[in-house]
């Protein structure tokens, strides 16, 4: 158990809908990262937050947005869902961003199925 | 640009065999980190090891060992005396200074099947 929690574990929804994925980082970790794992794209970095502020963006669609709250939990919002958004969404956390790299520990993931 | 190549899509071995998973990376960064993660059938990503670009010492942890060679841009992973529980997808990943070490670039993974 990495100490990173994600809810829900599974999510089934329809095209055009909006969903929110939630992540709680390991105790003490200030950084939260979101990744998408799909069959065609593999594991792709989406976005990074550090202590409530967005720090880096990857291949994140405009229909997707994220935020990190004062208690450090993070939410990834996916809207106007398409079939191609079906994927496993991972959250990861690490303790340090300014002092160089720190290991990212991953949560169990949320499997999103868009029908 | 950063890139990680795991050319072996799937490897099948019989229990107790040794197996090596290959990882080749590309980066222009002089400072970078390499990682291996394991994704068992249950789906979570489990951290195995981190290596920085200045430390080329090989590492051994139980049945696992890693060979980092900057000259060939490779960071290979060997499992000795494989077990059924080693069956998983293994990902090699890279994090570099130019991206502020903030994102991991993953390879496509190698699926390891260990049969009894």
Layout of helices and strands, plus pairs?
The complex is a heterodimer of chains A (115) and B (116).
Chain A: E1 5-7, E2 10-13, E3 19-24, E4 31-38, E5 42-50, E6 53-57, E7 64-68, E8 74-78, E9 87-94, E10 105-106, E11 110-114
Parallel strand pairs in A: 2-11
Antiparallel strand pairs in A: 1-3, 3-8, 4-5, 4-9, 5-6, 7-8, 9-10, 9-11
Chain B: E1 3-5, E2 10-14, E3 19-21, E4 24-26, E5 32-39, E6 46-52, E7 59-61, E8 64-69, E9 74-79, E10 88-96, E11 105-106, E12 110-115
Parallel strand pairs in B: 2-12
Antiparallel strand pairs in B: 1-4, 3-9, 5-6, 5-10, 7-8, 8-9, 10-11, 10-12
Detailed description of the structure:
The complex is a heterodimer of chains A (115) and B (116). With 115 residues, chain A is mainly β. Chain A contains no helices and 11 strands. Chain A has strands at residues 5-7, 10-13, 19-24, 31-38, 42-50, 53-57, 64-68, 74-78, 87-94, 105-106, 110-114. In chain A, strands 2, 4, 5, 6, 9, 10 and 11 form a 7-stranded mixed beta sheet that branches. In chain A, strand 5 (42-50) and strand 6 form a beta hairpin. Chain A starts with a strand and ends with a strand. By secondary structure, chain B is mostly beta strands. Helix content of chain B is 0%, strand content 53%. Chain B has no helices and 12 strands. In chain B, the strands form 3 sheets. In chain B, strands 2, 5, 6, 10, 11 and 12 form a 6-stranded mixed beta sheet that branches. A 4-stranded antiparallel beta sheet of chain B has the order 3-9-8-7, with no helix packed on it. In chain B, strand 7 (59-61) and strand 8 form a beta hairpin. The N and C termini of chain B lie far apart (41 Å). Classes of the chains: A mainly beta (115), B mainly beta (116). Chain A binds chain B through residues 2, 33, 35, 42-45, 48, 55-56, 58, 88, 90, 92, 97, 100-101, 103-109, 111, and chain B through 33, 35, 37, 42-47, 50, 52, 91, 93, 95, 99-109.
